[in-house]
Recover the amino acids of this structure.
């Protein structure tokens, strides 16, 4: 299968509960490699722009507030079919619907505070990676 890159965020609910390592253990156990990583505190502007596709949704304001409520870890993941593979490791948006063994089933608090983000397409992965990383920060 084709090598791909995808974009990942460990969200504030997870950094608050000290789950960064536990989440990355699941990511690495799946065979995906973390090839870039940094811990940041998003500004409202960054979070608002990142979730601009959801601007018309009723939860947009709350989502921006949540994503800026604490530090996040932004990462680039690489591996076979990485976009779909990481979506599989994450589990469904709502943890109540997530499969056993997935990050969201195990760790998410709610449909909003669901511990991780992952790109939903290869095209969006490239856009999201470029949003947070310069080429020289992706070190393999
Ligand atoms: P994802 O691709 O699985 O993250 O899901 P979406 O792109 O549909 O939604 C983006 C993010 O918005 C989710 O990961 C949640 O943090 C949040 N979200 C999605 N649906 C809801 C909702 O119904 N209510 C609230 N409060 N947040 C939501």
């Amino acid at each position: 299968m084709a090598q791909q890159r995808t974009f990942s965020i460990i969200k504030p609910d997870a950094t608050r509960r000290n789950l960064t390592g536990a989440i990355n253990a699941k990511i690495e156990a799946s065979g995906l490699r973390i090839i870039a990583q940094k811990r940041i505190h998003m500004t409202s502007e960054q979070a608002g722009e990142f979730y601009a596709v959801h601007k018309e949704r009723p939860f947009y304001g709350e989502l921006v507030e949540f994503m800026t409520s604490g530090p996040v870890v932004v990462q680039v993941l690489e591996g076979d079919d990485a976009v779909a593979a990481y979506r599989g490791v994450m589990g469904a948006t709502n943890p109540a619907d997530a499969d056993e063994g997935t990050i969201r089933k195990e760790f998410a608090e709610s449909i909003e505070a669901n511990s991780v983000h992952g790109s939903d397409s290869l095209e969006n992965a490239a856009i999201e990676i470029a949003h947070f990383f310069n080429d020289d920060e992706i070190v393999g």
Summary: The pocket of guanosine-5'-diphosphate is lined by residues 59, 62-63, 93, 111-112, 114, 117, 120 (CB under 6 Å). The radius of gyration is 14 Å. The CA atoms of residues 81 and 98 lie 20 Å apart.
